[in-house]
Every structure is written in C-alpha cells, then in structure tokens.
C-alpha cells in the first residue's frame, strides 16, 4: 500500500474523527490540526501504522490576539513512503502564561531538543518531557524571546543614543507574571544604578564620581566640559 | 503557582553530573568540561563529560553560546532583508542557506514555476561548489583534530579557489547573498564557465591527494574505524540527516527524494556507509565531493541562457535604466525598497540537502511584508543531538573524532 500525504489525512480522519480540528492544504503541503489531548495518540498511530518514523522539527508560532494563542507545529516524514505531513496543535487559553503540551519524545526521541527549544523561546511546557530546561538562553533567564510581545531591541530607549541609559521601569509588556526585565540579575542592579544618574547629563558621557572632577579638567571636547560644569553646579 | 514552580525547577542546569559523582555504581567518576573554548569543539560547544578512567560514561552537550536570535530578527525585516541573515547561520555554506530560504519564499509567493532554467542551473552549480567548499573545511579541520596537519593546508588551498569563483560573481568571498528570492542578485559575469571549468579540471587530482594522505593511512584508519558508531535506528530516531544518516547506511538524500531547483535533471549517486562509524562518515563526504563535481560538470554543460530573475515587477526591482523613464518602474522600485512584497497568508516548508544534512526553512506569512515567523530546521542542531549516543562508552580521545565526524557549525545550531 502506498501512503501519501493525502491518504494519511483520510486515514486519520476515519480512525480519529474526534481528534481533528481541521485540515488545511496550501501549496501542496498538507496540514492536520489536532486537539492537544489526542496529539500523542495520533502521533503514535502515525509512527507505527503509517511509518512516519522521522521527526524533522518541532516549532511554535505565537498569535497573541488569538485564543488559543500558540500553534505548535510538527513536521514529520516517512522514509519508506517518501511523503511528509505537517501536524499542528493549538494551545494557550486567555491569561494562561505557560500552556502545557503533551510531549512526543516518547514517540520520536528527536523531539527532545526541539521541545526544549520551544520551551525556552516560547514558554510552553511539555508534559512528560525527560529533560525540560532552557537550551539557548542562559538558565537564569526569565522571559521567552520568540513571543510576539517580547520587544526586538530589548528596551524602548527614551532618546536615541542616550549614552546607553535605560530606564529600569520600562515594562516590555510581557505580562505581570514575573517582575519583567530583559536583563539578568546582575544587569538589574546596573540598571538601577543608571537610573540614579542625572537626566540632564550630556548624551554619550559617563556619570562621574566626585573625585573624578579634579582629574578630568584636561578634557578637550567642548561638550565634555559643558557636561562637567552642569554636573558640578548640580552637586554644588 | 504550580506552573511557576515547574518553571523555576526546570531552570536549574546540569544537576545530574554531580549526582553521579557522589553515589551509584560509578563511584570513581569525574566530571569535566570540554569547551566552550576547546579548539576541537568547532566553535562554542560545551560538553559536560562524566568519565571513568578514559571511558566516557555520560556526555551532555550545552549549546546556546552563539544564540543570535536570527529567527526573531527576521520577523522585523522584510522578506528580502531577511535573506542576509540566513548567510550567517551556517557560515561555512552561506549559499546553501540562501537557496533554502529563497525556495521557501518562492513557494510562499507561488512563483516556483516562473524560475527560469538558467537560474535553476546556476543555483545547482553554486550549491554544489558550496558543498565541496564546506566539505573541504570539514575535512581539513577534522583531520587537524586527529593530528593530520598537512591535510588542513591542502584543503584550504582548494577552498580558496571556490571562494575566488564566488568573489568573481558576487564581489564577496563568503557572505554572498547571491541566491535571492526570485532568482539571483545579478547576472553571471562573462567568464564564469571558464572559471568553474578551471576548478573542476584540477580538483579530481587534488581529491586523489586527500585520499592518498588519509584513506589508506594506517594511523587514520585506527583513529576512525569502529569509533563513535551510530546505528541506523538511532540515526533515524534522533533525526540525524545528511552524511551522518547516510554513513549509518540509510539511503536518503533530499536531492533525490524531493528534488528541488531541477536536481532531477542530473545524474549522480548517493554514497552510503555501512558501519556508521567515523570512517564511514568520512568516506561518504569524500565520495560526495566527487558526485558534486559530476553535477557541476553536467550543469555547466547544459547551462542555458535566459533571464537571471523573474520578470514580476512586484517581486524583483526593475532595471535601473527604466527608473528614469517610466513612472510605473519608479513606483515599483519605490514600493519594493520601502515596503517589499506581500506573500499571501499561508505557510511553506521547503527541504533542501545542505552540506550538513537536511536544511529546511519554515515560513509563516500573515499577509504582511515581514515574515510572521521564520523557523530554520538546521541539520547541525539535530545531528548534535545524536552526539551523546555516539561517544558514550567510547574513549575520551575519541570524543574529538566524534565531534569532527558530524560536522557541526555552531552558528546554525544556535541560530
């Protein structure tokens, strides 16, 4: 029996009618959207009965306005029948910060790192995953960069090129679940220190301590001396 | 609250190696770090090795040191700008990345049929030259890791010839971005055929030199035979692709199975190993270089003339001379470079056979001018996942051979 992507869809539709949300075809690529509670069951069937032995990748897509919010996408391949199919499952109810997806590592061991990656970058947890920890970001990171509400540049700077000064209070808008900043614990202290700097400080110059005042008088640029005098009056 | 605990607990890294040190059957074990700055880890790979004497009991790869957020950055770029990012993933084979990305965008746009034969042939020639260049870097560094210094020098000598060809056509040696959605960045310059022919005529003799240096070398055989063996089932289960999968005896090549860019026109064989050890993976790549050369020769033979990109003004910019004379052309030019093109809502996943294995780009479009999501299925990521299965139970000195034989590029692993 020759199995193709189209015949796979038909077979799954007849065997698991309760598991399917919808099927999509776009540019000759077949997509099967499954309910998360039936995912493992269908995947096991696909591997054992329909010989989809090869998992290519697991990834996710974030649709922040939609409920459920996340698409988890699986690309699987049959080496014997030379066909492929895309599986999707949708998770993430409103106000659910870390939705849970059943892990498919028991079926395809290759899913291990891919699910860790999705966990790291999207914040989806995978139940029954043997080793769920961050893989790309540092282990103490608290947020999930590939979510759409995660800012691209890290911070919204108040002024361009403001000497690297960044207001610590800027909320990147990832939610109030954690106290959100995009820096690690060390960086937080640094940000707090920076916030204490006078806002009239010249852009591009560094905050100076009192003992620097005497040694830095030989500064050549005009802006630098201006900044010093401003600082000096403030401190005086 | 429970969720929070799960997340908090999962953040703790590397708890198992220290545990095995304390108790259990392996009381005399030691945990050592290999990398991230070890010269034979090919970049910034860190391996946590638990060893007992000289034997590796457990290996935990730790990656992410080169995480550059390419997938995130691409979401803020237009489709054409994101092409430049793909060069930086597998920086030893940038043109293969360009090809995978371009094919994916073209499928999303639905212009796959409009790509001319000339473009397809040129892409094949460049992708195969890139495969040879990538394999040469691999061969040189792999041999260097195992102590064969001179091979490294020879390999880089020949790779320079290929980079000269790339420089000749695009002006850049490595990050060319020459293959782009819709065709090529520029037309092939006159004299391209002669340049490539000059290379293909001398390369077989050079390839023989590498064989003379290594293939029957007793030292090389002892370092590579029956080392880091990967079984067929493990290779499939853990998602290994490319020479790693073929070295384990699985006949699988995307160029043959799902031909893209006109690969079905060319005759070539797929070298396949039998034991799945380092030597088999070595031999598979060596023979692949021969096959690549064969494809390049066939493609050069039949290289047709024609346009170097599609003539759709919504996707490719009009010629410069039209802009001063035609209002239409000026508008198209302006729209393309300020906004870009908007593929229809949908998604595309195109598989290609890069030098390292299956490279696939998954693009999701929401109808805007930016990719809504770009995911890259890099071969190195999956191949690295198999590494513990290869090196556990082997000697510490063979870890280097194992890492070298899977040909990882950390830029692609971490993306």
Description:
The complex is a heterodimer of chains A (236) and B (415). With 236 residues, chain A is α/β, with parallel strands linked by helices. Chain A folds into 3 domains: 123 residues, Beta Polymerase, domain 2; 46 residues, no CATH class; 30 residues, no CATH class. Chain A is built from 6 helices and 7 strands. In chain A, the strands form 2 sheets. Chain A has a 5-stranded mixed sheet with strand order 1-2-5-4-3. In chain A, strands 6-7 form a two-stranded parallel ribbon. Chain A is globular and about 50 Å long. The C terminus of chain A is likely disordered. With 415 residues, chain B is mostly helical. Chain B has 2 domains: 48 residues, no CATH class; 317 residues, Cytochrome-c3 Hydrogenase, chain B. Helices cover 51% and strands 11% of the residues of chain B. Chain B is built from 19 helices and 8 strands. In chain B, strands 1-2-3 form a 3-stranded antiparallel sheet. A 3-stranded antiparallel sheet of chain B has the order 6-7-8. In chain B, a hairpin with a 2-residue loop joins strand 6 and strand 7. Chain B is globular. About 2% of the residues of chain B have low confidence.
